[in-house]
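A favour, since you know our structure tokens better than I do. Go ahead and set the record down below.
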Amino acid sequence: VEPLPGGWLLRVREETPPDGTAPGRIVLDLTGGRRAVLTVAGGEGGSWSARLSPRHAEILYVLAVHREGRTAAQLALDLFGDAGRTVTVRAELSRLRRTLHGVLDHRPYRFRDGWETELRLPSGPGDLLPASRSPLVVRGRGACDSLRGPVIP
């Protein structure tokens, strides 16, 4: 967006920049224990950061670990240990997608295709979303070292 006398000039961005780099970068920072932050750079929304609720942090952690995406039933199993809780998952994802416009895709639910995604984990395995009882998060506490660093798009 550029200001012009009497209005604004809107320029449409290409999905992939001409130099071949990723169109955007997503960083899920879980190093703060109970404080999770999502930072987005690039894309139509520009650059921004948002503090996440504990439930939204769990959902994004699952999506960062399963980069290929998850169905509502798979997410329900990962989050609650019960594949039948799809209504709860869909409601949370609807709220999350509205809040994080342009960051998540669906069918299956996943981070936006082609974007670089980084998962930052705490130094101590017990500090990974410490209040969470999600089966995948609990298992992840034992696997923190193998999950560190960038996730390949």
Observations:
- DSSP finds five helices and nine strands in the chain.
